[in-house]
Specification:
By secondary structure, this protein is of the alpha+beta class. It has 3 helices and 11 strands. The chain is rod-shaped and about 125 Å long.
Length: 237
């Protein structure tokens, strides 16, 4: 073996030793990182913005993995925790889902029942009603006989809203028999039996059902003369 060959062998051995040293260094760094990070666990983050006080669904969140030691103790790791819950505030896309972001839906009082009706977005208080609000429910009925005035009636005063659904398009046939696409929101109320019957009747037979949002802490009690109204009442004044 001449001198040039010996130098080549030495350089090859040095290269192999350097490669082994670099590999050992990488392994050492990986082991050090793993020892500091620890095992990963599953959590969930918000896939798209969620409005406050809306019922939560699993499809609104996406699964992510992160080191256990970096996971907050309040993080939600099981989507079954969403059952019967609503968002307590607006949930921003990309936020980690945590227990303090959700609360249980308002419970029914004794003797109450849930009843949901579709409220036209154009005639309701679109976008302003949230669970826990109080509203007056009004219905407009056509005159019972030819020439009889139309009536607006206060169906329920101070009805408690317990859920607000998503804006949903639906087909409505007008007097000209043309089908028009309207938008409505399913709104669920907690009502006693008689009030629930009034609301069901109004949804079936009234020309329009409207909601009037009441101020927080305000009274929803009807005053004398407020329960029924006709246009003639103003004309005769």
């Amino acid at each position: 073996m001449n001198s040039r060959q010996r130098r080549g062998v030495i350089l090859l051995l040095v290269s192999v030793l350097c490669a082994l040293g670099a590999f050992a260094g990488v392994i050492s760094v990986i082991n050090d990182v793993n020892s500091k990070v620890g095992p990963e666990v599953s959590a969930y983050r918000v896939a798209s913005d969620v409005a406050p006080y809306t019922t939560l669904r699993a499809s609104q969140f996406e699964k992510v993995s992160m080191p256990r030691r970096w996971l907050p103790g309040t993080a939600v790791t099981d989507l079954s925790a969403l059952r019967g819950k609503i968002a307590v505030t607006e949930l921003r896309k990309g936020s980690l889902l945590q227990d303090d972001m959700i609360v249980a839906r308002p419970a029914l009082a004794e003797g109450q029942q849930e009843i949901a009706i579709m409220i036209d977005a154009a005639t309701g208080v679109a976008g302003k009603i949230t669970p826990g609000d109080r509203v007056n429910i009004y219905a407009t009925f056509a005159g019972e006989t030819d020439g009889a005035p139309d009536q607006s009636r206060l169906i329920v005063a101070g009805a408690r809203v317990i859920d607000v659904g998503r804006l949903t398009p639906f087909d409505q046939r007008g007097e000209d028999r043309r089908t028009r696409v309207r938008e409505a929101v399913p709104i669920t109320f907690a009502l006693g039996t008689q009030d629930a019957q009034r609301v069901a009747h109004a949804e079936s037979f009234a020309e329009h059902v409207r909601l009037a949002l009441l101020a927080r802490g305000g009274s929803g009690a009807a005053r004398s003369g407020d329960s029924t109204y006709t246009l003639d009442e103003d004309k005769n004044r």
